Amino acid sequence: MSADVEDIYPLSPLQQGLLFHVLYEPDTGVYLEQLWMTLTGPLDEARLRAAWDRVIERHPALRTGFVWDGLDEPMQIVVPAASAHTEWQHGDWRGLDATERERRLQAFLAEDRTHAFPLAEPSLMRLALFRTGEREHLLVWTIHHLVVDGWSLPLILGEVGAYYEHREATLARRRPYRDYIAWQRAADTTEGESFWRTELAGFTRPTRIGYQRETPGQPAAEGIHADLRVELDEETSAALRTMARTEQLTLNSVVQGAWAYLLSVHSGKTDVVFGATVSGRPTELAGADEMVGAFINSLPVRVSLQPDRSVADWLRDLQARQAKARQYEHLPLVRIQACAELPPGTPLFDTLLGFENYPLRENLFRGTDSGPALRLLGGTFHTHYPLTVLFIPDEKLGIHALYDTRRLDRDSVQHVLNQLRTLLRNMAQRPRRSLRELSLLTDSERAALTRRQPADLPVPEVTLLDMVEAQIRERPEVVAVVAGTEQLRYAELDARANALAHRLRAAGCTRQTLVAVCLPRGIDLIVALLAVFKAGGAYLPLDPDNPSERLAFLLRDSAAPIALVHSDTAGLLPAFTGTTLAVDAPSEEELWTGSVPTPDDLAYVIYTSGSTGTPKGVRVHHRNVVALFAATASWTSFDHRDTWTLFHSPAFDFSVWEIWGALVHGAKLVIVPFDVSRNPPRFAELLLEQRVTVLNQTPSAFRHLVRAIDKAQDGFAHRLRLVIFGGEALAPADIAPWFARFGHERPRLVNMYGITETTVHVTHHVLTDDGDTPLGQPITGTRVHLLDRYGNPVPDGIVGEIHVSGPGVSAGYLHRPELTAERFRLDPFAENRDARMYRSGDLARYRAGGTLEFHGRLDEQVQIRGFRVELGEIEAALSKHPAIGEAAVLAHTVDGEPHLLAFLVPSEPEASPVRRLRALTEREEHTTLDLPDGSTVFAVNRSETEFMAREIFTDAVYLQGGITLPDDACVLDVGANIGLFDLFVAQHCARPRIFACEPMPPLREVLARNLEVHGIPATMLPYGLGAAEDTVTFGYYPYATVLSGQFADPADERDVVRAFLVQQLESQGVHLADDVLDELLAERLTTESHRCRIRPLSDVIAEHGLTRIDLLKIDVEKSELDVLAGIREEDYPKIAQMVIEVHDVNGRLAQVTALLHRHGYRTTVLRDPQLTTTGLYNVYARRPDAPAAGSSAPPARWRGANRLLADVRTFAAEQLPYYMLPTRWTLVDRIPLTRNGKRDVAALSELAGQRPSAQADYAAPIGTTEIALAEIWVEVLGVARVGRADNFFALGGHSLLATQVVGRIRETCEISLPLHQIFSKPTLTELAEAIEQLREVFPRSG
């Protein structure tokens, strides 16, 4: 052992955890403890320093540092007292008033926290002494939590006082911290681990404060860490103590219960977990209470909230449960964490509770005439948790909140503390009340929430029929309905409806009779709905495109006695036993004089899907719908000048708004045929043709419409004044392209949230281009209450379940009284005792200004390998990728295992080649290959294409010898083969004009596909070039296409193919015997014959009017002289550059170069490094006036499906934890929609059974860094193998193992990797790249 090291021993698990967090955020001041105190009286500063030195010498913990580099696990070292340097700072603050002293103190504390201790250089403490008066000093003590806990602080200060006052003889010997480490290492943890495994079973997600940011933001001006203090008044503090005493509770149990309830309201869960600090000093270890060191432990406290239990009984159960847990409090948190079912790397809790009840006495210095009296002024330290709440027992119970400003802001923490005070007051006042009667809100706050709700709405005493008939009387000749070329005026609509109403009455329809309407979209549908009203009935819309089984169920469940059909749809209802009327049957048009419905009569029943899989019918009255239009009139300003579309199925409640919104205002209703609703370009045309002013869309449908409009050549001169969204959550990305083109003033885009059970719409928000898409505010007369699980209003900013009350709340479910009672509850907030509110299952929170913000559903999560996952979060992350236009994620069982499946729509224009590639490959099977830049091309055979790709893209052989590609280059590609050179040209210059000459039909077919996929506007020339017009026989080698040609001869080509094969195989370490090689050569030289046309190049130049050719590329096996012979003298000056592959047989190379020199070219001759043993050369010819290189075309990043998917997977891994990453990825042309414009989950499930585009398969590490890193992971994690895409945490890694990996990397790779890199780059490939980047900056970090 070194003379400078007195002792060395392992860390306690607590210290290991703290060390990790300190290394993870090294400059944040985390786990620095600061105490400040006054010393009043005479003070000998030298004597004080000497007293501190004696105490440091007395306790090894105060002379401890920490080392970890190169070690299997971190160790703590104790140095001799002479080597333990403690920094002192002095200052004179005399003359400062109290305010300035406080300001100076706070500034000093903040500055002090920014200075991290060198952890390997004890002591890990420092002191500052400021003289504030003649007999008064301020002492600031900063010490690291790695070496001592709060319990140790008064022990240390007492000893300092004893040494200062020469009372050291009274000090008893204290056991060293090493004894605790030995005790802990010897302890049997089996029973403790079993307890915690049972205690935490099923808990998979930390419980968070509702205001907490999901991802860290920027720290506040005061720094990363801040704190806030409040206290309860004396009356409440006394009441809490009395309650605790009366109910036989500890005050700790009371505050833990209050915190659990607060977390339950904030998280919406009845099962919550938070952390609680315990002293960690085992009673089994003699003298533990008097030891100096880091003992404190944090334990998870899991609490189940039982709403109907009394507060006192529930708290007693909590106390008993905690008493049991305290038996196992010495099990370190890191081991408790391993017992939980949380995803690796996820903390057990985000909030920590503590009680400051360690004995910090004020008489530690006795204050004699020869010495000072000490008085503690304050103390603080900051954990790595977003929020730590400390309770200080005093006459007034104090609450000290320490928070991370990157996760929480000051106002939010203040709200939490206010809510906690209110809750404690409620609990103290009435401990026998039930839990559900507690609230985080004061009476005045509850009243303020009620006052914020909209005023009551006077609803006109009319029906929908009354309103439509008023328009019939007022404007009978105005067009009411349009369907294709057919239209009806209001008078005509009235007459046809009257005739049908007579038939309905004759069939037995009377008031509130339910009439099924099974009609396709068209004028007959609107006539039928109005006729049902005229007959006094209510309509049940049935979509004729639905499966017959579903139609049969709806008819049975509804018990509708009459069905209206079209002669074409009558056969859809074979099992219907009621009366069927065909609306297109002849009938007499008569004046209707029958009875009419009342406002409280049923208007319609629309079925919605049920959570149990059984659809349920929602009963809506005329009064509900009339109230809807009255509530929205002030801002919609609907009138007879509007033109609406019926875009949605009548079985979707959005259609109620569309149909009756048009007709009750005397407007025109344009019925959109179903095929047009699924054809966005055609629908866009219809909007223009019909001059539509009011458009209603789901966000999914609107996305497709916007894309179609963006592609329109003639612009979009619309007449829209309102676009209203509903049916789905609206994302900013859905409307951003529209705003970019049309702005937000006209039309106004309005987001409306609604529910079938509350009559279509509940809230509205006028959208602007600020990127904000909230639900908005309730429409007039509608009240939206956000309630917690106990039925109480939640504070602003906290998510609660939406409960809707007001005139839009429907009558409940048809024939489902139990479900109606469950979902339609009495409204406790309404003055009318009979008023009901609907419990939606949707989640939202109120912003401070009263705007609602959507937060999903109560039942939206899925479980993947035990982890609860929000699919919408994954979809939002994937959709942020610039090459993804839309994403959908499903949880799907494959081979009995649940998987996340991603369906991705490549975007236009970023991934246009991928979209075109999909279209071509879906038609028939083709061989494809990815080029070095990720572009996917069609190929004839893989090995040859790989060779050409290396030659063209990797080696860039066509840009050697001084050859350039200017912008707007005219390029003539003779011997285009499959078009790789043309793709290369398109990537290296802007706006090229390419002529691709390829006579071979098999190659020409592949060439055409490659040009189409990559959008290259080349002119294909289906012939070869030669000295004169002719038709000749070409020899074609399917396995060596580049050698095909007019003079193809297997005997001549044998040496070339052999050289290529040998070089290719040897590069892979393969050596073949001669006989095997001969067999392979025979296969490669299989020949086909094709008759091909030959033309002189000058004829081609004349035919296409070419005045210049910037580059002529000639790659025609043994025909290069023939091609050159077809160029007339006057055309040579038009050709600026040539690249010619020459097979040097019979002096051909010399002939070609001599010809080029004679025509004024400078030449360079080079040989392809892959073909050095052959007679093949590349001749580069350039005229003196050849153009300079261009700017190069902007590269398309996503020209291939594999590159795109790899990029998206990497992108997703940067956005999401590993367990939220899909394992299967499928590219699709579009996300399928249902007839209502919503996502078609069933269709996606069918796609899930098809072959995915990509799967997360094993890929072996490549390169020295990846291989070395994989070996480290195998050793540290104890796994059999590690692949390139493997995630450190998914393989069982955690924070302590991460520190080991960092140490091994330092040894093996000679690089200092910051610990946080493992968390931000957890896959093998990502971490290897990070190491390589560090190597570039720091070649050797030693």
UniProtKB/TrEMBL annotation:
Protein name: Amino acid adenylation domain-containing protein
UniProt xrefs under Gene3D superfamilies: 3.30.300.30, ACP-like, Chloramphenicol acetyltransferase-like domain, N-terminal domain of ligase-like, Nonribosomal peptide synthetase, condensation domain, Vaccinia Virus protein VP39
Keyword Phosphoprotein: yes
Keyword annotations from UniProtKB, A to Z: Phosphopantetheine, Phosphoprotein
Cofactor: pantetheine 4'-phosphate
NCBIfam families documented for this protein: AA-adenyl-dom, fkbM_fam
Pfam families: AMP-binding, Condensation, Methyltransf_21, PP-binding
Carrier domain residues: 1260-1335
Matching InterPro entries: AA_adenyl_dom, ACP-like_sf, AMP-bd_C_sf, AMP-binding_CS, AMP-dep_synth/lig_dom, ANL_N_sf, CAT-like_dom_sf, Condensation_dom
PANTHER family: FATTY ACID SYNTHASE, NONRIBOSOMAL PEPTIDE SYNTHETASE
Signal peptide coordinates: none
Record-linked SMART domains: PKS_PP (SM00823)
